[in-house]
Structure formats: structure tokens, C-alpha cells
Amino acid sequence: MQQTTQILQFDQVSIGFEERSILESLSFKVHLGEFVYIVGKTGSGKSTLLKMIYADLMPTRGNIMVAEMVTSSLSAEQIPYLRRKIGIVFQDFQLLPDRDVFENVAFALRACGWKEEEKIKKRVTELLLKVGMSHKAAAMPHQLSGGEQQRVVIARALINDPLLLIADEPTGNLDPDTTDEIMALLQKINIGGTAILMVTHEHLLLKKFPARAFHISGKQVVEYRRSQDLLKELYG
Q1: How many whole angstroms separate alpha carbon 51 and alpha carbon 14?
Q2: Is 157 exposed, middle or buried (0-12, 13-18, 19+ CB in 10 A)?
Q3: pTM for the whole thing?
Q4: Hey, where are the domains in the chain?
Q5: pLDDT tens for each residue of 120-151
Q6: CB 42 within 8 A of CB 233
């Protein structure tokens, strides 16, 4: 897919806490339709980078632009509008244990201001079908496998047709076969035009599902056009 539309830009971004530098002078771009891995050792700053994208943290220096919105210039009231352009999938599923699959997704829609129940029902049905979970709409979270729970989380992340999907270790708690299924689902979403930024420590995925890659090391981001090139750099 030809990338022409920029969805994310870091321009000389640095961040630190209490005089401790975490990341320094990061500059990169991500376009619609791109799939980009973020890899790095524990404590390298991966989570900090993600939090800056959805404006949970603000950079010490530099600018971050998400969907043509500069995060540091947003008021507290504007940040929810930014986040509606972003879908977020975490390693721990964070489903509501007392609500079934349908209501877990519907709850997120209502939280975003959806009020008409017919439209909510239609949208939830569409999303569950998209992630292969329509047959489990009435199931409770504890009745689902880890892979099924992650599919529901992905459905929930797609409620607003986000331009960018952030996936933070989305396969970290899954077995290899289920991991492949979730990766195939993410690729399907990506092919539909949604940019995906995925943090992972599972380097095998970079080989099995090649894509562009960012390696965080020494407070910097090193870009690799192909994830296989990063693997060669790491392992020879």
C-alpha cells in the first residue's frame, strides 16, 4: 500500500523525569497503512513513547503531532478528541468482568457518547463480526480464552474507526498458535488502512510477520525499513 498520509510525527522529542533523561531527540514519521514494530529492552522507554502519543505524558522538548493535532497544545478538554482517533490494545485485557462480550464493547461506545441503542447494537455487531467473535457475544470474559479476550479488546479499540492502533505487547500472554491468529487479525485491520504501532519483545514475530521497525536503544530510536534488518543487527 502506498503511504501518502502522515498520521504520526515526532519532531526532536525528548522526555525526562526529575532530571533523569528517558528519551532524547526522537524524530520519525508514521503514515496511514503502515505497520511498525517498536522493540527495546525493558526500561528503554517503549511505554513512555506510547504514553506521549495518546497524551498521557507530554514531552520535555519537541513536538508530537497525531492526526494533525499537536499534543502539547491541546487543552484537557481536547485530549479525549485526540484519543478517539487512536485505538489502544494492552497486554492485560482489562475487560469488565461483570458484563458479557457484547456489553463490554457497547460500554465503550456509550462512554464515547453513543446514545441510540439501535446504532450501538449495529456497531457492536459489526465489530464482533470483524474480529471473529460474533458467536460469543453473550459469553462472559471468564468463559473466554486469552485469544478470544484479546479479540474483544481489539473490537473495543476499533469503535471509532481509529486512524492509528497502538498495540502494547498484544500477544504477550498468548500461546504461539493464538499469537499467529491475533497477528493475522492485526494485519487484516492494517490492510484496511489503519496504521498499527506495535510494541513487542517477541522477536520471532519480526521474522514471521515482517514490517518496518523502530529499535529504542540508548535513549534514541533507530529505524529499520525491514524488521529482518533489525534482527540481523541484533543477532548477526
Answers
A1: 13
A2: buried
A3: 0.91
A4: 6-85+162-235, 97-160
A5: 999 999 999 999 999 999 999 999 999 999 99
A6: no
6-85+162-235 has which fold?
Answer: Rossmann fold (3.40.50)
Question: What residue type is assigned to position 215 of the chain?
Answer: H
Q: What is the DSSP string of 177-225?
A: HHHHHHHHHHHHHHHTT-EEEEE-S-HHHHHHS--EEEEEETTEEEEES
Look at residues 80, 26, 89, 29 and name the one whose alpha carbon lies nearest to residue 56: 80
Q: Within 13 Å of residue 138, how many CA atoms lie on the same side as its CB? A: 0
Q: Give me the residue label for grid cell 494485519.
A: 187
